[in-house]
Amino acid sequence: MSVVRFVQNFSQRRALIASADARAIEALSVTLGKLGLLVEPLGAEGAQAPLADLDAARDVLFLDGDLHAPPIVPTGPTAELPLVPLVGLVGVEAPSRLRALMLAGATAFLPKPVYGGSVYSALYLAVNEHARKAALGSAVEELEQRRRQRRYVVKAILIVIAEAGLDDEAAFQSLRRAAMRARLGLEAYCEQLVRERADEDLDNPAAPFARAAVD
């Protein structure tokens, strides 16, 4: 897993504020503007509508937990994680509203009324925790992908043993060298090899018997 670099400067980012609370919007707009963010209040008119044109590398969403019909936040490549960092604005501290913000993917909370001195901390936590979770999710997905491909390594070794007459260790080393030449991971190269052999056998049903006769 690669090391996540912590972001400290949020200049040139865009802050989207989904709230019907005029005081919260004003307080956030002033403080976020001082931090160099472009502020776009969404108000409540986008209720229950999907948020469009979100930029995962630029946007941060401030979502008010007091909205009765909040906008739909799209998820990113990692399941259960929103496409952009999300700060939950907490007014009424009811468990149901806190749970709704958690389910939306909030990685930081900011109580209302909003005070300027607490905005940077919430922004810092939301952006960096979102990045950390996204990196962790990508690492888990990569490991799962390699696990799924591992069976192709075994099949590819058997193919090389049958076609080149090598033992299992020599066949494995041969595949490693071939994968390096192809600039592919071992698992990906073996999957490609197995699929190519399967396609050849489909195109020429006599191919497996011909290879067996040669062996």
From TrEMBL:
It comes from the Bacteria. It holds the Pfam family ANTAR. Transmembrane segments: none annotated. This is AmiR/NasT family two-component response regulator. InterPro entries: ANTAR (IPR005561), CheY-like_superfamily (IPR011006), WH-like_DNA-bd_sf (IPR036388). Residues 133-194 form the ANTAR domain. One of its GO terms (molecular function) is RNA binding.
